[in-house]
Amino acid sequence: MNKAEENIKDLISIIVPCYNEEKALPAFYRTAADAVKDIEGADCEFIFVDDGSRDRTPELLENFSNTDSRCRYLSFSRNFGKEAAMYAGLQNASGNYCVIMDADLQHPPELLKEMYRVVKTEGYDCCAGLREDRSGESPVRTFLSRSFYHLIGRVCRLDMGDGKGDFRMMNRAMTDSVLELKEYNRYMKGIFSFVGFETKWIPFHNVARAAGETKWSLRSLFRYALDGILSFSSAPSTIAGTTGAVLLLAALLTGIFSFVSGHGLAGMPLLICLILALNGIQMLFMSILGQYMSKEYMESKKRPIYIVKKKGGF
Ligand code: UDP
Ligand code: MG
After folding, report:
1. Cα separations (Å) of 221 from 100, 145, 214, 218?
2. Which terminal residue of the chain, N or C, has fewer Cβ atoms less than 10 Å from its own Cβ?
3. How far is CA 153 from the centre of its chain?
4. Ligand 1 centroid vs 150 CA: distance in angstroms?
5. Distance 205 CA to ligand 2 centre (A)
6. Which residue ranges does UniProt annotate as crossing the membrane (predicted)?
7. What is the pLDDT of residue 257?
C-alpha cells in the first residue's frame, strides 16, 4: 500500500429501509451516528429509503439530510416493500462497503465497528449478523418462521437458515453482484446466498423494536415466504408430480387387490381404479408442464451464469 492509498478513507454506506418509522427513526439516527463515530479508517453515509410512508418519516429524513451532510434519502411514490427499498438503497450507495439495517434498532449499530474490522482485515467479503433467538416476538410467529426456514432449507438447497437476515456489511464486489440480479420478485436472503462470497456470521440477540409496530402481518409474511420458495425452487411442481405418481400407484394396487380378492376388474373397484389412474396421469403431466415453465421462469430472471470473485494474469 503506498502513502496516498493509506490516506484514502473507506466509505461505509448504511442503507436503512423505512416504512412508517417516525417513532423509531430519531433513536435510530442518534444511536447509529454515535456507533460509527469511533470507526477508524472509514467515513459513513446514511442512505435512508422511505418506502411510501404515510407518517412523518419523509419529514424526518429531510431534516436529517438538511442538518447532516452524511445523510441522504429517497422517497418512494408508494409502498413498494422492503425488498425494493433495499435494492434502491444499494443502487444509490457509493461506499466501498455497504450495510443494510432496519430502522427499529433490532439490528444493533454497536456491531458496525466489528463488521467493518472483519471485512477490512479478515479477508471476508461479507460480515453478517446472526440472530440467535427470537425473544420479543410472538410464539405463533416464531413457530411459523422456524417451520418456514426448515422447509425452505430442504427445498431450495441454498443456505437461508433462521436468523440469517438482511443485516450485513458487504464489500463492493459482493454489492455489485447483488445488484446484478435484477429480478422483479426479489427475495434478498436467497440472493445473498445465490451470489456466494465468503461470509462471517456474528451472533446477536433479538430485542423488541425500539418503537412503533412491525410492518409484517401474518398474511404478508406468508406471501413473502411463498415468494421465497417460488423464486428459488421448482419444488411445488415436483410435489404435483409425486402426488400423481402416488395416485397411479394407488390405482395399480386397487386393481391388483380387486383381482386377488376375486372381484375381477368390474363395478366399483374398476371405477375407483380409473378415477385414481386418470387423476394420477393428469397430475404427472401437469408437473412435467410445470417443470418446463419453471425452467422458462428461471431463464426470464436473466441471472448471471457465474460470478467471478477474483482474476489474475489476464
Ligand atoms: N420496511 C419497509 N417496507 C415495508 C415493510 C418494512 O421498508 O413494506 C422496513 C421497516 O421500516 C424496517 C424494516 O423494513 O426498517 C424491517 O421491518 P419490521 O421491523 O417491521 O420487520 P420485523 O423486524 O418485524 O421483521
Ligand atoms: Mg423490526
Report:
1. 20, 9, 11, 5
2. C
3. 13
4. 22
5. 13
6. 239-260, 266-293
7. 85
Q: Is the pLDDT of residue 6 over 90?
A: no
pLDDT digits (tens, 9 = 90+) for 165-186: 899 999 999 999 999 999 998 8
pLDDT at 161 over 80: no
Place of cell 441471472: 303
79 ligand 1 Cβ < 6 A: yes
Q: Check pocket membership of 52 for ligand 1, CB cut-off 6 A.
A: no
Q: What is the mean pLDDT of residues 95-105?
A: 96
Note the pTM of the prediction, 2 decimals.
Answer: 0.84
Q: Quick one: pLDDT band at residue 33, thresholds 50, 70, 90?
A: very high
Please give the distance, rounded to the nearest whole angstrom, from the Cα atom of residue 181 to the centre of ligand 2: 25
- Output the CA torsion sign for 57, 216, 87, 120: positive
Q: Which three cell numbers stand for residue 105?
A: 434498532
Q: With CA atoms as reference, report the closest residue to 252 among 267, 273, 237, 281.
A: 273
Task: Determine if ligand 1 sits within 6 Å of the CB of residue 228.
Answer: no
Instruction: Give residue 166 CA to ligand 1 midpoint distance, Å.
Output: 11
The ligand 1 atom nearest the CA atom of 20:
11
End-to-end Cα spacing for the chain: 22
Residue ranges of the domains in the chain? 11-232+303-312, 235-300
Ligand 1 atom, smallest distance to 102 CA: 15
Is the C-beta atom of 290 inside 6 A of ligand 1?
A: no
